Amino acid sequence: MVDVILDPLRWETAGESDEALLESWLVDEGDRVNAGQVLCKASLVHQGLEVAAPSAGVVEQIAVSAGERFGPGYILVRLVDD
Q: How many domains does the chain have?
């Protein structure tokens, strides 16, 4: 199982109280994904970001819904080996 989070380096430019916004999902639970495939789009401090799968697998759980805000270390999605 792989828990996918927003790259911690992205948070270095954000303030302590800043949150990111998950704009949209490009996959659904149950989808097979490839390593490097973009899973969702988010924004942080007015900067658009793409979150990619670190490895191939199946989307087991989407933990943050589109339109929700999230902070550093939040699990966005869980992947399992296919």
A: 1
Residue 54 domain boundaries? 2-80
Structure tokens at 39: 């899973």
Average pLDDT score over residue span 36-56: 95
* pLDDT on residue 67: 97
- pTM, two decimal places: 0.91
pLDDT over 90 (residue 34): yes
| Residue-wise burial string across 26-56, b where 16 or more C-beta atoms lie within 10 A, e elsewhere | ebeeeeebeeeeebbbbebeeeebebebeee
Residues in the chain: 82
pLDDT at site 30: 98
Provide the CATH number for the domain around residue 76.
Answer: 2.40.50.100
User: Could you count the other beta carbons within 10 Å of the beta carbon of residue 57?
Assistant: 21
CA distances (Å), origin 22, targets 30, 31, 40, 82 = 19, 19, 7, 25
